[in-house]
Design a protein that fits this description.
Elements (H helix, E strand, L loop, with lengths): L2 H4 L15 E13 L2 E8 L6 E3 L1 H11 L10 E11 L2 E9 L73
Antiparallel strand pairs: 1-2, 1-4, 2-3, 4-5
């Protein structure tokens, strides 16, 4: 019998990710007292388990989406399992990063499998909120290149829900 099945938890663990990263859409952030400490608890849309945020993960999300937790709702992150040192021992942990996506060009024969190498995302894949890619009010400098006059980048759209990794059952 698997120990995780014998002692189920309502909170996400590294084992729940089954060795694969998962792209998830954030839900509400609440606080809860666990082990006599107040912790931030992140709900994940479409998922049963919630994620207890440690300072490292909370700061990583704040770097991506701003320090106000109310603004995190409906934003996308990627979570993944890794080993970290905790109290002198190596242990499995969950970490947060910007979602990554695969380029899908049929003319280059790109591999679109989930385990294929992925290009880092420079900007989030949801509608422009008027802030630069760093999450602050700085904008990209104006372009002097006039070869594309009359053309503009297509507007960014919300990432479709089917892009989430629903095959990971947590």
């Amino acid at each position: 019998m698997n120990i995780n099945e014998a002692f189920p938890s309502k909170y996400l663990s590294a084992a729940d990710l089954m060795g694969r990263p998962a792209t998830v859409r954030m839900g509400e952030v609440n606080s809860e007292v666990l082990d006599r400490e107040t912790k931030l608890i992140l709900s994940l849309q479409g998922k049963k388990k919630q994620m207890v945020l440690n300072k490292t993960n909370a700061m990583a999300i704040a770097e991506l989406h701003g320090a106000e937790t109310n603004d995190w709702y409906d934003k996308v992150i990627e979570i993944y399992a890794t080993e970290v040192e905790f109290q002198g021992k190596m242990t499995d942990a969950i970490r947060v990063r910007a979602p990554r996506r695969t380029e899908t060009r049929s003319d280059q024969g790109a591999d679109t499998r989930r385990d294929a190498p992925r290009e880092p995302v420079r900007e989030p894949a949801y509608a422009d909120d008027g802030r630069g890619s760093r999450g602050d009010d700085r904008r990209d400098p104006p372009r002097d290149d006039r070869s594309d006059l009359g053309r503009s980048d297509p507007p960014r759209r919300a990432a479709p829900a089917h892009d989430m990794n629903d095959d990971i059952p947590f």
